[in-house]
Specification:
By secondary structure, the chain is mainly α. It has a single domain, classed as Metal-dependent hydrolases (TIM Barrel, Alpha-Beta Barrel), CATH 3.20.20. A two-stranded parallel ribbon has the order 1-2. Helix 3 crosses helix 4. The longest helix has 15 residues.
Length: about 90
């Protein structure tokens, strides 16, 4: 469970959080991965987030447009979604 005070303190100190979308390709981990991503997006309000694949196989890598679409679907604003990929 994320504690918002700890998240705000980390953001204030300049720390970044990493979202890995690799769990979305595993049927057993998909629900947990999506829930964690949504909670992290809500807690950080889209600030100080980095998005990475976390995959070892290049077959599952997605384009930046796909990742932006995913982040928009999960509730992030468009400007923040693009910034996550350009950091």
């Amino acid at each position: 469970m994320l504690k918002r005070n700890q998240v705000y303190e980390a953001i204030r100190k300049g720390k970044f959080f990493e979202l890995q979308y690799s769990g979305m390709f595993d049927a057993n981990k998909k629900r947990v991965c999506l829930t964690n991503c949504i909670n992290l997006i809500k807690a950080t309000k889209g600030k100080n987030l980095l998005v990475s694949s976390g995959l070892s196989s290049h077959i599952y890598h997605r384009s930046p447009v796909d990742i932006c679409s995913l982040l928009l679907t999960l509730g992030m604003k468009r400007e923040r979604a693009v910034k996550c990929l350009n950091v």
